[in-house]
Fold these 2 entries.
Entry 1:
Amino acid sequence: MADEVVYEPTSTEETQSTDESTKPVKEEITQQAEEETLPIDDSTPAITVEDLSLPDGVKADDEVVKSFIDTLNSSDLSPAERANALLKMHQEALTAAGEAQTQAFLDMQKEWRERIESDPEMGGPNLEATRARIGKLVAQYGDAEFRQAVDLTGIGNHPAFAKFLDKIARDMTEGGPVSGSPASGKSLAEKLYTTMNKE
C-alpha cells in the first residue's frame, strides 16, 4: 500500500498562521504601553478643593490651590510635564515663604527701633547718649561671639534688651545703687560678668 500524502502548508501559509495566533498578544502589549504613556483620561473624575486635606491650622493661598488643581487635572500635560510643573510650583512656594519671613523680621526690627526712639528714658533727646552708653558697654565686655549673636537675632533692637543693657551701663558710669545683697561689695556688672576683673 502506497504511503498517503500528508498536506504540508507552504511557507506563506505558515507565516500567516503564526501572525494570526500571536496577534491578540501583540495588541494587548501595545494597548498596555499606550495606557502607561497617555495623559490622565478625560473620564477620570476631576480633583476639587474638597478632595484636598491640609494639616490643621494650615491656610493655603487660593491662587496657589487653583493652579495646583488645574495642573493635576490638565489632560494636555504628559506625566513628566505635570511633575515638572508641580516641582516648579513647590519651589515658588518655598521662595515666597522665605521672602515673607524675611519681611516679617525686618518689620519687627523696625517696630522695635521705633519703640526705643519713643521711649521716655532711652529715646527722644536721650537717644544718642543711650546708644553711646550701650555701645561702650558692649565694646568693653561683649566679645565677638556676643556681638555676632546680637546681630544675627536682632535682639539688640528689642526695647527690653536695650533697657537692660542701658541700666547696667548707667550703674557702671553713674555709680547708681545696685539691688541685691550689698554685703558682697560687687556691682551689678561684676555679678553679670564674673570674669570682668580677671586678667
Entry 2:
Amino acid sequence: MTAHTSPHTHAHRHDRIALPERLVGQGLDEHQYESGDRAIHAILIDATAGPQTDLVITYRDGSYEVWAARGMIRFERLFATDGKGFEYRVIEQIGDNPVANQDPRALATIEEELAASKASGFPGIDANTAYVEPEHVTYPFAYERIAQLFDSPNAPDSSSTRSPTRSAASPASTARSTSSRRAHR
C-alpha cells in the first residue's frame, strides 16, 4: 500500500517520524533483517508453534511490523500535525491487517464475547471457556502499545503473542499484552 506524495510532502512526513524514545538496538538492525525474516517465517509456519502464534511484532528501519498468518502491516509513528501526541500510518499491508480491530469497546460484555466465540466456531456457552479466533479479537490501542514496547531500550528483537484458541495452555494463561478479548469486565 503505497501513497503517492510530492517530494515536499514526503520530506515533511519524514521530519515527523517519531522513532523509539531511546533507540539503542530495539527490534532488528540491518545485520539482522535476513535472520529476523527467517525467524518470523519459521514461527508462523512451524507445525507446533504456528497454530499457537497469533502475532509476531518487530521494529526495523523506522517502522513497526506486525506479522500473522492472515496478513502483515508496517506502520510508522508520527508526531501529530497539531503538536499533541502521535499519529500512526500504515505504510505497507499484505493480506489482512492483523490488528485492524482496535475498538476498546468491542467484546465489552459477556454476551458479546459468547457471540464472538460462536462466530469463531465454538459453542459459546460458557464465558470461562469461550475461545475467540484471532479474526474476532480486538487489539485496543495496538499501534500505541507496540510503539511503547519498542520505546524501551530493553525491548526485544521481536515479540510474539499466543493465539487464544489454539494454545495448549489454559484460557487464563492466554492473555496477551497487545490484545484483549474484551475491553472491560
